[in-house]
């Protein structure tokens, strides 16, 4: 079904949640960049000054392999060992993301956001799904901290 300008205001056209979510993702990146990463100094707040983070290493190898980033003169080509090293970091990056998401969800609740608002932000259908997601993430983080995994 082709998108038309009237689709968003037409009461007879069902909403397309995936399209709305894709629009929110772009708007979210723009909002955060504009409000909290407008300068080089602000963007550098999240980067370790002398050591590359696991997520940065994985993204860098991905960007170099895909051609999104260009290699500097004299920089070696990405080889199989680089790819293996990046793949080795993926579980750590995933665990860090889970911890970040659980922390963000906990802080959102602490700031008074409802599970419905959180579900909307995550693109989930129900408040119960958001709460269950938090419980899974918090449980996983507890297992990681205990070293039981």
Please state roughly what percent of the residues sit in beta strands, choosing from under 5%, 5-15%, 15-25%, 25-35%, 35-45% or over 45%. Answer: under 5%
Distance between the termini: 46 Å
Biggest beta sheet attributes: none
- Uncertain runs are none
Computed over alpha carbons, the radius of gyration is 20 Å
Number of helices: 6
Overall 3D shape: globular
Total number of β-strand segments? 0
Share of helical residues: 55-70%
- Encode the helix/strand succession as letters: HHHHHH
Instruction: Please state the average pLDDT score.
Output: 86
Derived from helix and strand composition plus strand pairing, the structural class reads mainly alpha
Please supply descriptive tags for the structure shown above:
149 residues, 6 helices, mainly alpha
What does this molecule look like?
- The protein has 149 residues and is mostly helical.
- The protein is built from 6 helices and no strands.
- The chain has helices at 17-36, 40-44, 54-66, 80-110, 115-122, 127-146.
- The protein starts with 16 loop residues before the first helix and ends with a helix.
- The mean pLDDT is 86.
């Amino acid at each position: 079904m082709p998108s038309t300008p009237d689709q968003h205001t037409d009461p007879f056209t069902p909403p397309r949640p995936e399209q709305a979510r894709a629009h929110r993702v772009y708007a979210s990146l723009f909002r955060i960049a504009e409000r909290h990463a407008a300068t080089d100094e602000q963007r550098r707040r999240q980067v370790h000054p002398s050591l590359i983070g696991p997520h940065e290493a994985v993204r860098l190898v991905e960007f170099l392999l895909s051609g999104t980033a260009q290699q500097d003169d004299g920089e070696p080509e990405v080889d199989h060992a680089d790819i293996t090293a990046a793949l080795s970091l993926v579980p750590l990056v995933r665990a860090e993301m889970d911890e970040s998401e659980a922390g963000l969800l906990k802080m959102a609740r602490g700031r008074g956001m409802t599970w419905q608002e959180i579900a909307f932000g995550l693109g989930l259908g129900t408040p119960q799904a958001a709460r269950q997601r938090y419980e899974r993430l918090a449980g996983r983080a507890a297992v990681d901290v205990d070293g039981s995994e």
